[in-house]
Amino acid sequence: MVLDGRPTAEELRSRTRRFQGHLREQGLGGAVLVQNVDRYYFSGTMQMGHVVVPADGDPLILIRRDPRRAAAESPLAVEPLESVRDVAARVRDRLGDIPSPLGLERDVLPAAQLDRLQSLFPGVPFGDASRALLLTRAIKSPAEIEAVRRAGRLVAEAVAEVPRFLREGVTELELSALIEFELRRRGHGGLIRTRGFNQEMFYGHVFAGATAAAVSFLDAPTGGAGLGPALPYGPSPRPIGRGEPVSVDLVGNVQGYLADQTRVFALGRVEEVFAEAFEAALAVHEAVLAEARPGVPASRLYDVALQAAAETPFAAHFLGERHKVGFVGHGIGLEVDEYPFLARGFDLPLAEGMVFALEPKFIFEGRGVVGVEDTFAITAEGVERLTTSPQELMVVEE
Amino acid sequence: MVLDGRPTAEELRSRTRRFQGHLREQGLGGAVLVQNVDRYYFSGTMQMGHVVVPADGDPLILIRRDPRRAAAESPLAVEPLESVRDVAARVRDRLGDIPSPLGLERDVLPAAQLDRLQSLFPGVPFGDASRALLLTRAIKSPAEIEAVRRAGRLVAEAVAEVPRFLREGVTELELSALIEFELRRRGHGGLIRTRGFNQEMFYGHVFAGATAAAVSFLDAPTGGAGLGPALPYGPSPRPIGRGEPVSVDLVGNVQGYLADQTRVFALGRVEEVFAEAFEAALAVHEAVLAEARPGVPASRLYDVALQAAAETPFAAHFLGERHKVGFVGHGIGLEVDEYPFLARGFDLPLAEGMVFALEPKFIFEGRGVVGVEDTFAITAEGVERLTTSPQELMVVEE
Q: Which of A6, A106, A366, B301 could in theory staple to A128 by disulfide, Cβ–Cβ 3.0 to 4.6 A?
């Protein structure tokens, strides 16, 4: 089923049932979903429309454009919607009444869209379904995990080509272009979807030395110098020099599912400090994984990472130097910033089926970044690694 | 100045003055801008923070991350912001009071962010600054137009390579990957920023024959079959056959500025109907351009396009077959969907400095799409074309 990326009806129903449990817990009568990824997650189609999920009973999938395509894509019953103005009447017809309070995707729904929904559902009290959604989506099915695994394999295939591309004088941008081509021709979906407001990503970040260590506005441990003030992160036009740590941070995309991996390369030997910091990153990685199993709060993994980093000589550089980010990992799936966050105070217990990227990185401003990042699934016993490139600092000799 | 993509202080001040005029017209006391592109437009930096523009006086640029980088990027005075909680106090200190009503980017600001701003500015009445913003950004400076022109040249360089890549059996995805590589290695910025909720784009759309004509959820005349239900637009894995019209719709990105162009290729001769429809698209293009000059309502260009298309044998296929989109063009700049829209009822008069993409296209479901798209600037006398590939149906013989 996962092979063509289409969830089964049974899987979609299971997602809906879990979501309904969370909706009831939050005191919501149901939810109306309009954002692309959320609609897709429950319906199997991203065609435009409204997915209305009551706290009990079957969801209603109303598609304005294109209903014919939606019917071919979704294993569930899909109903055409002639005009957006009909939404409330259609919901009332099919569900008896409008679910109330009606949960919205308040974390991503623009204010103007909120006004529009209020005019489509006059007098209906609204609530926030964001947390119920994120909790539901945090638990991946075996088919979803297989899609992430495939995205991890895609990244590994492209990363295996890096030694062929890494030559003295190649710019960060050229190296990025070569790697992106390897990803894309193998079926990378292109977009890296983000949920956080103002967060952006293009394939990931390939950069080296001082430009890799440039602080950016992104909520990520590394940002990079980028191509200019309107493109202020990611690769720069600077040629990569010998001995610089080259951070190859890539997000695969297979059928919309993402896998996040970072590896470090170098043209010739790196300074000792970088080699040691790379080992320190591996040590933090191992310390965190030793704690990762169902029932452990996600925040505990962040605390363990900080403790492990404090035992290295590089604590001042961990997760940033002047600006430290407040997490060492993030859930990932259809979007790159899902639950759980491995962050201070994020006390959600880990559970089987959660998938997250763990990225202990050390940033040396003006000099370079090293670290390691892999994507893991929580299993009954612990973790399974879904990204598969060898975990070593890979020195390329010309 | 434009060469490194950095707007001058003078240009930023001029943008602010125009915005202030629109704010006053809309009865707003000022605006607080938090979205990446809007902040960049007025400050010259995309670093994270708040740009507060009073209806009179200088804007306040408060940067939380990274203030040092923001100071290097912006030609204006930038002030560090330690904590978001300080925003209102800082605004009061510098401007005497909080501008009121305070305009927000309601078209893009998520509801949860709106709540956050309300808590940061307790008791302050909010308004909507979206229209004032879009009206301001609709008028491009000569430096902005030059950036779009450079994005157009970038696209033309990649398009010139298409005859080398177009071989029988090459898939839409492979052709896309090859073209994207040509764009990227020359400095394409990657992201195509969209303003519309749920709108997405990855470089543009390269596809052929029946898969090119697949209806998608995107608000665009063509969508394509894509790679699966979670990636339901753009190129598919289908091999391109002889005689199929190949639509090469690409968006360049130079220093954040976009240019949109579509050309049609074919491996060997296309069916007569496609050749004729391509000529019809050129005729619509010409008819619209003959009317395009300052003072003419944008909607008039849409009406002219419909009239011109009605005089061809292909009116039923114009801008869609089952689902027609309601516009024949769209403003473009830092985002791909800016003012003016060449759409029914969009009566904003064209003005010197406006930049838009015009895309008369004919869709034959199950068979293919043909059309032409170029990006134009409105000049004092009429229009200047900013995308430069030859406007012909390019037949490639192996």
A: A106
